[in-house]
Amino acid sequence: MPEEILSQNEIDALLSAITSGEMDAEELKKEEQEQKVRVYDFKRALRFSKDQIRSISRIHENYARLLTTFFSAQLRTYVNITVASVDQIPYEEFIRSIPKMTILNVYSVEPLEGRVLMEVNPNIAYSMMDRILGGKGHSDKQANNLTEIETLIMSQLFEKSVTNLQEAWGTIVDINPILEEFEVNPQFLQMVSPNETVVVVSLNTQIGDVSGMINICIPHIVLEPIIPKLSVHYWMETGTKERDPETYEQISRHIKQVQVEAKVILGQSKISVNELLNLKRNDIISLNQSIDEALQFVINNEPKMLVQAGQMKNRIAVQVLEEIKGGVFK
User: Fold this and answer.
1) Would you say the pTM of this structure is higher than 0.70?
2) Longest Cα pair distance anywhere in the chain, in angstroms?
């Protein structure tokens, strides 16, 4: 059982109680030796450790940043999405906590089993739709009377956003999210049994002047195959893992084949537009480079070496003199 650290005031109060006889030291020892019993609610089983919950939170913090960028570009307005909380609760409790009429997107996440549910508060969903249709982002429309065109527009928006979910989870597992269902009534949606433990990630969402919540419900069956990866040890191991020699060699080989622009700067000069317009044949432009000075060898517009001009096998060539690193000659 974890030790409790008492403050100085609590220690003083305890010593005072023992000294005055209000508390018996022998009874305290006896209570300490007795077995402690803790109430456990099987309907609210905690199947994920705090470490794993923190990993899920870290993944969705990245997901929130990706969604912020995506929706800002799609809606052409200010969007801010942040993680508010990450909890594990029974599926039945999650369904009861969301509005009776809301926007529900169900995603399959192959190769993982099960499906992930994204619940979007109606205020947020209708604000998105109003922006897409050219409005200012305000709408008082009800979820139960969406037209087919409005349903199609909204489902297409969330279907495009699946790449962000794929990218956010890419550090743990490669998934292929697909929007399978678009629903407005949670009572018609039964993904898992009512007592199944689910992780609910709540995202604070603000679109212009409208704010609301986006809730992501991830059943235990989805996360079960990757639970060992949801730990600090896995993140540390993957960060310090030795590189695969074969992969490293393949990457190096591909990098060596990349084409880069290489040029030698003979010199530079500044002239006025009037001088440029009046240039004639046999006119001379004076450069700022002396014939005795080394020339700059530039790769993709960045100086890399000092060279001198010459000739090799009847072709113009340069000879490398020294390397330039960070603007300092080596």
Assistant:
1) no
2) 112
